[in-house]
Amino acid sequence: MKPLPRPAKERFITLPGTGDQMPANGLGMCCRASAYDDESVRRTVLWYLLQGGRHIDTAMMYLNHKPIGLAIEEATARGVPRAEIFVVTKLTDRAYASGKERIDALLVEFTRDLMVDYLDLVLLHAPKAFVPIGHSCTDWSKCRAAGWRALAAARKTGIVRNIGVSNFDVPQLEEIAALPETREAPIASNQFMLSPFAPSFAFETANWCLEHNVSIVAHSPLTGAFQKGKAAADETIQAIAAQHEHFHMATQVLLKWAIQKGFCVIPGSGNPKHQLSNLEIYSSELSAQDMSKIDSLKDSDGFFYQDMREIKVQADVKDEP
Q1: Could you give the CA distance from residue 154 to residue 121 in angstroms, rounded to a whole number?
Q2: Which of 62, 96, 118, 282 is catalytic?
Q3: Does residue 118 carry a catalytic annotation?
């Protein structure tokens, strides 16, 4: 199979600092069976690239760099230019305080496994531990800063073109923005869970990002593998899909809403038909009325949300008797 043309009317997000163009519609390589079996991963990424997709999102934690690298190698051999492929990966929270030399070695390992000369975007995967057991970090503010400084230094060498964060909320973003290194290496992106059903504080984070020129990448834009059916069955989404001239699938409506809000999306699918359907959402627009209806779904009950905020609750102080 020869590469198909890239999607008509494709949209891009311009990243601060470099001006690099990040495709607004990517492929998430996490959290489903086809993201962990090596041959499934290779086929998934190859199909996506040959069908015109160019934005691949992975992570150190996903353990699938090598099969993704094989897919990139095969796609480029078939005519997909490497310069068009936007490769994103993430540094696990356990690496933040490991020291600059260790992080530098990991970045070299990432390029080798992914079979690329440079990484388009590297993120700090989370502001704190996903699993707070057996962790060496005792002060997450200091660990985040150490990880960021190491990435900022690596950016100067060219092995990384852009750096950013994932799952950070406003106070955590402000903390990174205040570091001296961020003046030369701005926060290019914040990737976090975002869909029409997300809680208000997620949209507060989104607003901060838009106001400070930090691109937003919505992971789980369909609400995640275990909730996608529930989101697609929502009456509002179903009604819009039923009457729209081009978007006949609820998933297309959900993805288009995010892109029209100015977000990038990284839906995950190992099915080439679904990948192609996802890439076709540039062909038309949702009306202002449709967008307003979808906006009203915010704070919907019954949807899981990955909350990585550091909430500090001050205990009530009572007078001694």
Answers
A1: 12
A2: 62
A3: no
